[in-house]
Amino acid sequence: MLKQERYRFLIQQYKNKIYSYSRYMLKNKMDADDVTQEVMIRIWENIDKFNLLAAKTWIMKTTNNLCIDYLRRRTVVFNREHEIDDEFEDTFSINAAGDNPYLTTHMNMMVSKVKEAIERLPENLKSIFVLFEINGMKYREISKTLDLPINTVKVYLLRARKKLQEELKDYEAHEVI
Q1: Burial 21-41, CB ≥16 within 10 A → b, else e
Q2: What's 132's domain CATH number?
Q3: How many angstroms separate the CA atoms of 93 and 106, rounded?
Q4: What is the pLDDT of residues 103-129, one digit of tens each?
Q5: How many domains does the chain have?
Q6: Looking at residues 70-90, what average pLDDT do you find?
Q7: CA gap 26, 127 in Å, rounded
Q8: Res 117: pLDDT
Q9: Which domain holds residue 58?
Q10: Is 72 in contact with 156 (CB distance < 8 Å)?
Q11: Cβ distance 86 to 19 under 8 Å?
């Protein structure tokens, strides 16, 4: 396969995952745009150096490392508003509400609460949760991407789920009529 075709294929496959992961980690659209662009440049520069079958791990590891670099470079952290992409909302908001305005509003409020709870997770738990639940990566892929033992990935994912469950349990109990 020609270099340009391989590049186009990889960008088409992973651009949304790169961007959404960057967006979750950095909480800033412009920084996520920068990281996404930098990852795409690095893919082009290294396209002949990695196996096409192992590209997902390499790409997500590069994305994670660049996000960490951006987070480290920030000296002052501003509390920025952050929109989650459509992929997240598709995973959580099933059109069960139909045309019922109450259910639609309730689902939107639930999605908002879940987003906020994910944002409050510690970075190590959030990155694993996002890679597994939102980006659909497997334990082994996450392990390679973040250079963590597979059991650590499983434990962190379990901790993230428990934190979210603990934080969100009161919300549903108060909201259901």
Answers
A1: bbbbbbbbeebbeebbebbbe
A2: 1.10.10.10
A3: 10
A4: 777 677 777 888 888 888 888 898 899
A5: 2
A6: 52
A7: 11
A8: 86
A9: 1-83
A10: no
A11: no
